[in-house]
C-alpha cells in the first residue's frame, strides 16, 4: 500500500498528510494505560462490575426492571447481524431491520391510538421536548406558553426547563388534578404525564378540551405497558404521544440506551422529527420498505430544520418491537395485569396498617405517606437489597414491574414497618388477564379508564409464539440485511469499524445491565469509576479538560456544546452573542443544533479545494464581531481533508470574542496525531459510535459525549438526579441534555474496553491505518474516477470523495446506479451525494484488511467498465446491469430472461460470488411512489402474496 503511494513508512505518510502546525508527537507519559490483552481487559471490567451492587430496583420514574426473552437477547442484542448494521439509507439491503422498525411503529400507533409513529426517539425526556416543539410548530395559537403537568417525571421537568430557556418558551407547571385549565387560556400546548410521576391514573380529557379550545396541542407521555389496560391517549384527546419502550424487554443499563417513541394524530405526519419507515414498491411492483419523506432529513434542511434529531435507537427499538411480537397482545395484557395486581396487593397491605397513599387510582406505582420516616424506610429497604424512591422526607415511592415477586412485596412491606411474613395478595404469575370487554375493573384503575378496544391485531403480533418460530423469524429478517458481518461498509463520515466481541461482552452482564439510573451512589461505584476513567482518557486524546458522557447521540452532544457556549456568554453578560458561523460543507445537524440553542446561523463559504474560505470567514467575523457566539467547524473537513489554515480560522474567531466548536465526527483521522483542544477548539462532541467502536445497530444506539476546555466545563450537562455533581459551576451552569445522568451508560463499557485494549499507541496506529487505507483507495481509483478533494500534499484524510458527475455526463450512469450495482458485487454503497451531489464518499476505516479493500477497488473498476460499455452501445441506456441493479434471485429465475446481458453478468459479476453471494430481497425501490402513498404501519399479509 505504501509503495502505491510512494512513502517508505506509515509515519512518513501521516507526517505529510497532517499539517505540521497541529501535529503532536507521541506523549512520554499518558493517563491511558498500556494496551491490555482481551483477558486482562475483561478481568478489569469484572472488577469494576463487582463494585456495582445488584439490588432490586423499585424506584420507577420511567425506568423498570424487565425480562429480556433469551431468544431476543441472543438473536438481536448479541447478534452482529443486527448490531453491526448501518442506518437503512440503502433500503434494498436493509429490509430486515426496516420490517422490524415498521413493527415498532405499528406497536406504538396501536397502543397510543394515534395515526403515525416514527422509528424511535432517543429517550422519553428528549421525546417530550420534541413533542413540545411539534406543538409549537403546529399550533394555531401565537402564544409562547406551554403548560406542563406538575406530576411530570423530575428528569423530564429539568430537561424541558433547560431546552425551553434557549428557545424563549415559557413553561407553566400546572397541577391539572386540582382544576382543568380555563377555556380562555392562551397557550400553544400542554403536556400530561400518563400515569403521573406519582403513579396517579386519571382522565385528562377535560384538560385536552380546554387546550384545544385555545388552539393548542396536547402532548402526552404514556407508559406503553399501562396502555394495554388503560384507555389510549388518543381516546382522551392527545395530539402527540411520547414515551419510552424500555420496559418492553430492554435492560435498565443505568439509563440507556433505550428507544423512546413519538406518535401523532393524522395531519401531523410531516411534523415528526427523526426517521419514519414506510411501505413502497420495488421495480417489480412488490412491497418494499424504506425511509419515508426523506426530504425531512435534518442534514438536508440545515438551519431550516425543525429538529436536530437525525438518528434513532434502532437496535433497542428492534428489541422492544420483538418483545411485542413474541408476547403478542394477550401476553402483554397478561404482564400488565400481573403488574397492576401486584401493585394492588401491596397497596391493600399498606392500607391495612393505616398507611396513606397519594392516590387510590394507579397502575404500578404507589406514593406512600410516612411523615418523618421516609429516609428510614428507604434505608431499611436498601439493607434488604431493594431500592425505593425517596420523594421527600415524608413520602416514599414504590414501583413494581414484571420481575417483582411476592417475596419482593413482602420485603418492601417490611421496610415500611409491617410484620415479617409471607405476602398474601394478588400479583401471582399465571393469573387471568383482564379481557378486552370484561366489566371487571382492576382495583387500582377506574372502570371508566379501562381499555376496551383491541390492539396489535396484525398477524406479525399473533404468530411467533414458540421460541423456534421466533428464532426463525429473527433469522429471516437478519438474512435480508447487509451488515458488517457480511463485508465492508465503506461509508464516508460514518466510520463503520469493527465492534470487537470482547468489547461487547460486558453489555450483557447483570452488574451493568440491571442497574437503575437513579440508584444510590453507594450502589453504582463500579459504574462511576469506569465513567471517570473513560472521561479522563477522552479528555487526554482530545486535548480538553472536562468530558460529559451524558449526551446519547452526536446531535445531542452538538447541542450540549452550544448550550455550554451560550451559558458561558450569558455568565459574562454577553447576552447579544447569538450568531453561529457554520461552513457550507458542515454536517446539517450543526445548523439545526445552533438554532435549537437559540442561535442564528451565518454560512461561511468554502473554496474550490473544499476548505473554509479564510477571506469569507474573516469578513463574516468582522460583520458580526459584537454578536459572534461561535464557529462550528469539522476537522478534518467534511470533504475529508486536513485544512492547513485551521489555526488561523480559530484565532480569528477567538480574537472577536467567539468560541470554537470543533465537530468530532472525523476524530478517527486525528487520534494520536492531533487534538481538538490544540487546534483552538473550546468544545467538541465525540461520536463514540464512530471512533470508539460502539455499534451503529442499524441507526442507533449512539453516544455523543461533549468535551470542553476548563472555562466551559461548568456549563456542561448536569442532572437533578445524578449520583454526584459533575462540572458544577456558576449561576448559568448547564442543565440536562438527556433523561439519564450518564446517557447510554450500559454501552460505555464498549468504548472503555476499546481504549483499554488499544492503549495510546494502538489508537495512534488505528488512525494511521485508516488514513493509509483511504489514500490507497484514492490512489488506486483516481485513474477511473476523479478524487474531488485533497490536501496541499495531494493526500486525503480518513475518507475520500469520488466524483461521479463526469461518468454521468459520459455514460448516463448515475451515482444511484453505481450504488445499487455495488449490491450485486456484494457491497454496501459508500455515502451517496454528501457533502456534494453526484459523489461517493468512501471511508474504509482501519478494520478492513487488504483483501477486502482490493475486492472493493476491483468492483469499482469493473462498474466503470460496465458504464463505458453502456456508453459504447454494448447495452442500451435503459436496459443494462447498472440501471436494473440490484438483481434479486426472483428477477433472474422467474420468467423468460429478456435483457441484453446474461444472468451471470447480472448476479455473478465476480466469479468468487458463486459460493458467497448476498442476495438482495427486493429490486430498486421507488421512493417517490411511497411518499405519494404514505403507509407507515404493517401492511396486510396479502400484500406479499
Share of helix, binned: 25-40%
Bin the strand percentage: 5-15%
Say how many strands there are: 26
Mean pLDDT: 93
CATH class of the largest domain: Alpha Beta
**What does the overall shape look like?**
globular
So how many helices? Answer: 29
Q: Describe the sheet with the most strands.
A: 7 strands, mixed
Helix/strand-derived category reads alpha/beta
Low-confidence stretches: 426-431
Fill in the CATH topology of the largest domain: Aspartate Aminotransferase, domain 2
Summarize the structure.
The protein is of the alpha/beta class and 945 residues long.
Can you describe this structure?
- Keywords: Oxidoreductase, Pyridoxal phosphate.
- Its EC number is 1.4.4.2.
- It comes from Microbacterium terricola.
- Residues 1-416, 444-723 form the Glycine cleavage system P-protein N-terminal domain.
- Residues 766-887 form the Glycine dehydrogenase C-terminal domain.
- By secondary structure, the protein is an alpha/beta fold.
- The chain folds into 4 domains: 28-52 and 505-757, Aspartate Aminotransferase, domain 2; 76-323, 3-Layer(aba) Sandwich (Aspartate Aminotransferase, domain 2), CATH 3.40.640.10; 328-449, Alpha-Beta Complex (Aspartate Aminotransferase, domain 1); 761-932, Aspartate Aminotransferase, domain 1 (Alpha-Beta Complex), CATH 3.90.1150.10.
- 35% of the residues lie in helices and 12% in strands.
- A 7-stranded mixed sheet has the order 2-8-7-6-5-3-4, with helices on both faces. It has a 7-stranded mixed sheet with strand order 16-22-21-20-19-17-18, with helices on both faces. Strands 11-12-15-14 form a 4-stranded antiparallel sheet, covered by helices on one side.
- Helix 19 links the parallel strand 17 and strand 18.
- Helix 4 runs antiparallel to helix 11, helix 6 crosses helix 14 (467-479) and helix 11 crosses helix 13 (406-415).
- The two termini are 50 Å apart.
Amino acid at each position: 500500500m505504501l509503495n502505491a503511494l510512494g512513502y517508505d513508512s506509515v509515519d512518513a505518510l501521516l507526517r505529510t498528510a497532517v499539517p505540521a502546525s497541529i501535529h503532536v508527537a507521541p506523549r512520554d507519559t499518558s493517563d491511558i494505560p498500556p494496551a491490555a490483552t482481551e483477558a486482562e481487559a475483561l478481568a478489569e471490567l469484572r472488577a469494576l462490575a463487582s463494585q456495582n451492587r445488584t439490588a432490586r430496583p423499585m424506584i420507577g420514574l420511567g425506568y423498570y426492571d424487565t425480562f429480556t426473552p433469551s431468544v431476543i437477547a441472543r438473536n438481536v442484542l448479541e447478534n452482529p447481524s443486527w448490531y453491526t448494521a448501518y442506518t437503512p439509507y440503502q433500503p434494498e439491503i436493509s429490509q430486515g431491520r426496516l420490517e422490524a422498525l415498521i413493527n415498532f411503529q405499528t406497536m406504538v400507533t396501536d397502543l397510543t391510538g394515534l395515526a403515525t409513529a416514527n422509528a424511535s426517539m432517543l429517550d422519553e425526556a428528549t421525546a417530550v421536548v420534541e413533542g413540545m416543539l411539534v406543538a409549537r410548530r403546529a399550533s394555531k395559537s401565537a402564544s409562547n406558553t406551554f403548560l406542563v403537568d406538575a406530576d411530570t417525571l423530575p428528569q423530564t421537568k429539568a430537561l424541558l426547563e433547560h431546552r425551553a430557556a434557549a428557545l424563549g418558551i415559557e413553561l407553566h407547571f400546572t397541577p391539572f388534578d386540582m382544576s382543568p385549565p380555563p377555556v380562555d387560556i392562551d397557550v400553544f400546548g400542554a403536556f400530561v404525564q400518563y400515569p403521573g410521576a406519582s403513579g396517579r391514573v386519571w382522565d385528562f380529557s377535560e384538560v385536552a378540551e380546554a387546550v384545544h379550545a385555545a388552539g393548542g396541542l396536547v402532548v402526552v407521555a404514556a407508559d406503553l405497558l399501562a396502555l394495554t389496560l388503560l384507555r389510549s391517549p388518543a381516546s382522551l384527546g392527545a395530539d402527540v404521544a411520547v414515551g419510552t419502550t424500555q420496559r418492553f424487554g430492554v435492560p435498565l443499563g443505568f439509563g440507556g440506551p433505550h428507544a423512546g417513541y413519538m406518535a401523532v394524530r393524522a395531519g401531523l405526519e410531516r411534523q415528526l422529527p427523526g426517521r419514519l419507515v414506510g411501505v413502497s414498491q420495488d421495480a417489480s411492483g412488490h412491497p418494499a420498505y424504506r425511509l419515508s419523506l426523506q426530504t425531512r432529513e435534518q442534514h438536508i434542511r440545515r438551519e431550516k430544520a425543525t429538529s436536530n434529531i437525525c438518528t434513532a435507537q434502532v437496535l433497542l427499538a428492534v428489541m422492544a418491537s420483538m418483545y411485542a411480537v413474541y408476547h403478542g397482545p394477550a401476553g402483554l395484557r397478561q404482564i400488565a395485569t400481573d403488574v397492576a395486581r401486584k401493585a394492588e396487593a401491596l397497596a391493600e397491605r399498606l392500607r391495612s396498617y393505616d398507611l396513606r397513599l397519594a392516590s387510590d387510582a394507579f397502575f404500578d406505582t404507589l406514593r406512600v405517606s410516612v411523615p418523618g420516616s421516609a429516609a428510614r424506610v428507604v434505608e431499611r429497604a436498601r439493607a434488604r437489597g431493594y431500592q425505593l424512591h425517596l420523594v421527600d422526607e415524608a413520602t416514599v415511592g414504590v414501583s413494581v414491574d414484571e420481575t417483582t415477586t411476592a417475596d419482593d412485596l413482602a420485603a418492601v412491606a417490611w421496610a415500611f414497618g409491617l410484620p415479617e411474613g409471607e405476602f398474601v395478595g394478588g400479583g401471582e404469575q399465571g393469573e387471568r388477564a383482564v379481557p378486552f370487554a370484561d366489566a371487571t375493573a382492576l382495583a387500582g384503575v377506574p372502570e371508566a379508564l379501562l381499555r376496551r378496544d383491541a390492539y396489535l391485531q396484525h398477524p406479525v403480533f399473533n404468530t411467533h409464539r414458540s421460541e423456534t418460530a421466533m428464532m426463525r423469524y429473527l433469522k429471516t429478517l437478519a438474512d435480508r440485511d447487509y451488515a458488517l458481518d457480511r463485508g465492508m461498509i465503506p461509508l464516508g463520515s460514518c466510520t463503520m469499524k469493527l465492534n470487537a466481541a470482547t468489547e461487547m461482552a460486558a453489555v450483557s452482564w447483570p452488574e451493568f445491565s440491571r442497574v437503575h439510573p437513579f440508584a444510590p451512589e453507594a450502589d453504582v461505584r463500579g459504574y462511576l469509576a469506569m465513567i471517570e476513567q473513560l472521561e479522563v482518557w477522552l479528555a487526554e486524546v482530545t486535548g480538553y479538560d472536562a468530558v460529559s458522557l451524558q449526551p446519547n447521540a452526536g446531535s445531542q452532544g452538538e447541542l450540549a456544546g452550544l448550550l455550554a457556549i451560550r451559558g458561558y456568554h450569558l455568565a459574562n453578560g454577553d447576552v447579544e452573542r447569538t450568531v453561529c458561523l457554520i461552513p457550507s460543507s458542515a454536517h446539517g445537524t450543526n445548523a439545526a443544533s445552533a438554532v435549537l440553542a437559540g442561535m442564528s446561523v451565518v454560512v461561511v463559504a468554502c473554496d474550490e479545494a473544499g476548505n473554509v474560505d479564510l477571506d469569507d470567514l474573516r469578513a463574516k467575523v468582522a460583520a458580526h464581531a459584537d454578536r459572534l457566539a461561535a464557529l462550528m467547524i469539522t476537522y478534518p473537513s467534511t470533504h475529508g481533508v486536513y485544512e492547513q489554515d485551521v489555526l488561523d480560522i480559530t484565532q480569528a474567531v477567538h480574537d472577536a470574542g467567539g468560541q470554537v466548536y470543533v465537530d468530532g465526527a472525523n476524530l478517527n483521522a486525528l487520534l494520536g496525531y492531533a487534538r481538538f483542544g490544540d487546534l483552538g477548539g473550546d468544545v467538541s462532541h465525540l461520536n463514540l459510535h464512530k471512533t470508539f467502536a460502539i455499534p451503529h445497530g442499524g441507526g442507533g444506539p449512539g453516544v455523543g459525549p461533549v468535551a470542553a476546555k476548563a472555562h466551559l466545563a461548568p456549563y456542561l450537562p448536569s442532572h437533578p438526579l445524578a449520583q454526584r455533581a459533575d462540572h458544577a459551576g456558576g449561576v448559568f451552569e448547564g442543565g440536562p441534555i438527556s433523561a439519564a445522568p450518564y446517557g447510554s451508560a450500559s454501552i460505555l463499557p464498549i468504548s472503555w474496553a476499546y481504549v483499554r485494549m488499544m492503549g495510546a499507541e494502538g489508537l495512534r496506529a488505528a488512525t494511521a491505518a485508516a488514513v493509509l487505507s483511504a489514500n490507497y483507495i484514492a490512489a488506486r481509483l483516481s485513474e477511473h474516477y476523479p478524487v474531488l478533494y485533497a490536501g496541499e500534499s495531494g493526500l486525503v484524510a480518513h475518507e475520500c470523495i469520488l466524483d461521479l458527475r463526469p461518468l454521468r455526463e459520459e455514460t448516463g450512469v448515475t451515482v444511484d446506479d453505481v450504488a445499487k450495482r455495488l449490491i450485486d458485487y456484494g457491497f454496501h454503497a459508500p455515502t451517496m451525494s454528501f457533502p456534494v451531489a453526484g459523489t461517493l464518499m468512501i471511508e474504509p476505516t482501519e478494520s478492513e484488511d487488504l483483501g477486502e479493500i482490493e475486492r472493493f477497488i476491483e468492483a469499482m473498476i469493473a462498474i466503470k467498465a460496465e458504464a463505458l460499455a453502456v456508453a459504447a452501445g454494448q447495452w442500451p441506456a435503459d436496459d443494462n446491469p447498472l440501471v436494473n441493479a440490484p438483481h434479486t434471485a426472483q428477477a433472474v429465475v422467474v420468467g423468460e430472461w429478456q435483457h441484453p446481458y446474461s444472468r451471470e453478468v447480472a448476479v455473478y459479476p465476480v466469479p468468487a460470488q458463486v459460493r458467497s453471494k448476498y442476495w438482495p430481497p427486493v429490486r430498486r425501490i421507488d421512493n417517490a411512489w411511497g411518499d405519494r402513498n404514505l403507509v407507515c404501519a404493517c401492511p396486510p399479509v396479502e400484500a406479499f402474496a
